[in-house]
């Protein structure tokens, strides 16, 4: 495997699913209380399930391990593929294929198509819209989050705001980045995130979002849903 500039290591979370940790920062890609539980709670139960349009454009910051793509595809299958999903994932520092393999996310899903996708999503070409299924498309974008203002995207229905925490990357939780994100969203669009910081709520409210605190995933008391007005 290539030298890892972020010195990531594999750990197991409390629900049995795995994630990565950046040892120098002591920052995990997912909650230690349960990577799979967190992804489903924040981005599916309080994200995708709340939007009933036929065609849904999803923007994820950042793509990371790909787990959020997989739980989204799982929900798409549960809905019998009746929704069309266009998924755009932005990531500056992609994980390596060997790391994706060691995460063993194929073990989390019984569906064979999903098992195959656990690695395929990391093998697909960057900057190209790839059809993963009849109504599911993925485009991975290798870029800095602060360049999203220059990205050519359709109007976004749901934002999965899954950046590293404010402790290690405070600039990703300030008004400037949320304003760029808001400009990419359609009116009525939803931003969902595991964070419940007061400064984040205020920044979103200042930008005209209708912000509500929701029950958080295991190990976290609250999270945020924000609807663009």
How would you sum up this structure, described in words?
The chain is of the alpha/beta class and 229 residues long. It has a single domain (34-228), classed as Vaccinia Virus protein VP39 (Rossmann fold, 3-Layer(aba) Sandwich), CATH 3.40.50.150. Helix content is 27%, strand content 29%. It is built from 6 helices and 11 strands. The chain has helices at residues 35-45, 67-78, 97-103, 112-123, 175-184, 198-206, and strands spanning 8-12, 18-22, 27-28, 55-61, 84-91, 130-133, 136-142, 156-161, 185-193, 209-215, 222-228. The strands form 2 sheets. Strands 6-7-5-4-8-9-11-10 form an 8-stranded mixed sheet, with helices on both faces. Strands 1-2-3 form a 3-stranded antiparallel sheet, covered by helices on one side. Helix 1 (35-45) packs across helix 2 (67-78) and helix 2 (67-78) packs antiparallel against helix 4 (112-123). It is globular, with a radius of gyration of 16 Å. The model has no long low-confidence stretch (mean pLDDT 96).
**Mean residue pLDDT:** 96
Alpha-beta classification = alpha/beta
Q: CATH topology, anyone? A: Rossmann fold
Major sheet: 8 strands, mixed
Assign the CATH superfamily: Vaccinia Virus protein VP39
Broad shape = globular
- Contiguous uncertain segments of 5+ residues: none
Q: CATH class, anyone?
A: Alpha Beta
- The percent range for strand residues is 25-35%
Instruction: Count the E strands.
Output: 11
Order of helices and strands: EEEHEHEHHEEEHEHEE
**In CATH terms, what is the architecture?**
3-Layer(aba) Sandwich
Strand order across the largest sheet: 6-7-5-4-8-9-11-10
The first-to-last residue Cα distance is: 46 Å
Count of discrete alpha- or pi-helical segments spanning 4 or more residues? 6
Task: Please state the CA-atom Rg, rounded to the nearest Å.
Answer: 16 Å
């Amino acid at each position: 495997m290539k030298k890892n500039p972020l010195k990531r290591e594999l750990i197991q979370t409390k629900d049995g699913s795995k994630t990565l940790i950046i040892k120098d920062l002591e920052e995990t890609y997912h909650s230690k209380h349960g990577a799979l539980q967190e992804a489903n709670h924040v981005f599916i139960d309080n994200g995708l399930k709340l939007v009933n349009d036929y065609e849904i454009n999803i923007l994820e910051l950042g793509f990371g391990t790909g787990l959020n793509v997989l739980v989204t595809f799982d929900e798409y299958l549960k809905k019998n593929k009746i929704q069309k999903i266009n998924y755009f994932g932005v990531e500056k520092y992609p994980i390596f294929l060997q790391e994706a393999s060691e995460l063993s996310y194929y073990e989390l899903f019984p569906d064979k198509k999903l098992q195959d996708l656990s690695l395929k999503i990391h093998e697909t070409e960057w900057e190209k819209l790839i059809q993963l299924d009849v109504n599911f498309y993925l485009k991975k974008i290798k870029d800095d989050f602060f360049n999203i203002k220059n990205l050519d995207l359709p109007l976004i229905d749901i934002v999965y705001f899954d950046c590293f925490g404010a402790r290690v990357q405070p600039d990703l939780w300030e008004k400037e980045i949320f304003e760029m994100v808001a400009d990419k969203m359609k009116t009525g669009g939803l931003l969902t995130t595991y964070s419940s910081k007061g400064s984040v709520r205020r920044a979103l409210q200042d930008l005209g979002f209708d912000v509500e605190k929701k029950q958080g995933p295991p190990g976290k008391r609250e999270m945020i849903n924000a609807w663009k007005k």
